[in-house]
Write a structure and sequence with these properties.
395 residues; Molybdopterin biosynthesis moea protein, domain 2; 6-stranded mixed sheet; 8 helices; binds adenosine monophosphate; binds magnesium ion; Molybdopterin molybdenumtransferase; MoeA_C_domain_IV; EC 2.10.1.1; MoeA-like
Length: 395
């Protein structure tokens, strides 16, 4: 199955299973959450014309080149008096323009005379250094659409409009399962044939960044009865996310147990790393089974499970930003699967990590993102290739 088709199917499934409940949160709590409704400006921004500079405000038509008397001082946060005709006002950045003024000159272009009058040293023009009322936003304009993910910028924007709370989608509850007798949690001693469980840490912290509540279901041993029992104990979740144990190996007990109480389809994706991916449900709860090799887990979560999850929260644009960069490598062997090479950009060229094995997570730690090499293509040094930064996928 081509990557696009898998993504399309997952997004369609996500739209059928929206996590639609909402809650009202203070801005301080809303980081990483998804806006439930469009946000409309209840204010003009700025609410009144104000000065973009520290300087002097005047009415341009009143000025014929002569020095002007200063008749008031206007600080930010204070209400001005109307401007006395033929005079100017001392004004500071962000302070409201007095009625009658239509121009601000910055103090650097002025000279204060011994008698206190101000001489303007340069020519002046109408509306210079004035931020007009409503130049950013007008009352009633939509400033953010439903499904916007709230980061520092969006929260800052909501704050400029005076919103103290926002209505957001509730957090998805995601159960993370690791499978395999070989897995041991970091910090414990390794027995023969064992490896440390890295996928759990990777996924749990990634999901938390995506605003999920994680139900950490630990390690399932390769044993059917215990796998059944762990699944039965999960409680109420919106998604079961597993790694390993669902391909066609003899020890793939998770697949067996899931099939007994639901449905599970095995998709053979044209993606490398990460060919086997399963999708189905367990007692009605959607299940995504990611391949167990750490680099495969990373790529399939980032490119498929992440957009699926965000779409269930109503996020419209789930595609990561990607851009074209000249290759700093040769890729002579055309593949039948789409490859995501762990790569970094250096001196304007994108370079790939020497070992692209799906078991190697170090490649991704070295990298800043992935290069997408399309099926059948053989990019050469200097050819344009597509780069997707990890910063896009992780946030
Ligand atoms: P599986 O799909 O269970 O056959 O696993 C494929 C490969 O990924 C095997 O080499 C596993 O040891 C490895 N693997 C599976 N789960 C994890 C995990 N949670 N952390 C690190 N490696 C894993
Ligand atoms: Mg396994």
């Amino acid at each position: 199955m081509p990557v696009e088709e898998a993504l399309e199917r997952l997004l369609a499934l996500a739209e059928k299973a929206p996590i639609a409940e909402t809650e009202h949160l203070a801005l301080a709590e809303a980081e990483g959450r998804v806006l439930a409704h469009e946000l409309v400006a209840g204010l003009d921004l700025p609410p009144w014309p104000n000065s973009a500079m520290d300087g002097y405000a005047l009415r341009l038509a009143d000025w014929q080149g002569e020095p002007l008397r200063v008749t008031q001082r206007i600080f930010a946060g204070h209400a001005p008096e109307p401007l006395e005709p033929g005079t100017c006002a001392r004004i500071f950045t962000g302070a409201p323009l007095p009625e009658g003024a239509d121009c601000v000159e910055m103090q650097e272009n002025t000279e204060v005379l011994a008698d206190g009058r101000v001489r303007f040293l340069e020519s002046l023009s109408l509306a210079q250094n004035v931020r007009p009322k409503g130049q950013e936003t007008r009352v009633g304009e939509q400033v953010m659409s439903a499904g916007t993910r709230l980061g520092p910028i969006e929260l800052g924007l909501a704050a400029t409009l005076g919103y103290g709370t926002l209505e957001v989608r509730r957090q998805p509850r995601v159960a993370v399962l690791s499978t395999g007798d070989e897995l041991v949690e970091p910090g414990l001693p390794l027995g023969p044939g064992q490896i440390y469980n890295s996928n759990r840490r990777l996924l749990v912290s990634w999901l938390q960044r995506l605003g999920c509540e994680v139900v950490d279901a630990g390690i399932l041993p390769d044993d059917l009865a215990r796998t059944r029992q762990s699944l039965a104990e999960l409680g109420s979740v919106d998604l079961i996310l597993s790694t390993g144990g669902v391909s066609v190996g003899e020890a793939d007990f998770l697949g067996l147990a899931l099939r007994e109480a639901g449905e599970l389809a095995l998709w053979k994706l044209a993606i490398k790393p990460g060919k086997p991916l399963t999708f189905g449900h367990y007692q009605g709860v959607p299940v995504i089974g990611l391949p167990g090799n750490p680099a495969s887990t990373l790529v399939t979560f980032g490119l498929l499970a992440r957009p699926y999850l965000l779409r269930r929260l109503g996020v419209g644009n789930v595609a990561p930003l990607r851009f074209s960069v000249p290759a700093g490598f040769d890729w002579p062997k055309a593949g039948s699967r789409r490859e995501y090479l762990r790569a970094r950009i250096e001196d304007g060229l994108v370079r790939i990590y020497k070992n692209q094995s799906s078991g190697v997570l170090r490649s991704a730690a070295w990298a800043d993102g992935v290069v997408e090499v399309l099926e059948g293509s053989t990019p050469r040094q200097g050819d344009a290739v597509t780069f997707i930064p990890f910063s896009e996928l992780l946030g």
